[in-house]
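Write out the 3D structure for:
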Amino acid sequence: MAHTPEHPAAAGQYVSRAEEGPLPALPRMAQPRALGDLLLYRLSRLSGAASLPAVRLCEGRYGITRREWRMLALLAEGGSMHPSDLAVQAQLDRARTSRALSALVAKGWVRRTVQASDQRYAHVELTDSGQRLHVQLFPEIAGLNRDLLSVLSAEDIGALDATLQRLQAQAEQLAATCALPKAGRQRGRARA
């Protein structure tokens, strides 16, 4: 596709592949006309509704936020790691990761070990108390997951899992090749 000054992509506007030619009749989600047709909006609504019981369980019964729980579970699965690696896995920026880790350390669930020769080199890992919390909380979170999926057949769950894997790969590909400018967090300003 040639980029000429008249083409929207040349002006920094996003042009989807769907706009390159006519599409056959597709479900509304494939040809969105309203907010409720957009996949990301629907996933956000699903996540919000489905997260509510988990948030109440984590915060109300165990005193741990969703972000802290995500990090605790990643550390339980991956063992000791550098905080920046944990941030990548948790898909959080370093500042949010640092705040959550500080809270987990204060609660006694995570231990931060700093190398004597270089104070910037640290690793974090679960304490025994953090391990016990994970062992206790994970089955309850898994139960909420089972309850959510209970309206689907085993075949539906398999198809959903495969679809989510394909969408994740496509999203990562699109993110890697995105030519749009980054937006500033303040009032939607574009960053240079």
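The helical segments are 39-62, 66-78, 83-90, 94-106, 128-149, 154-177.
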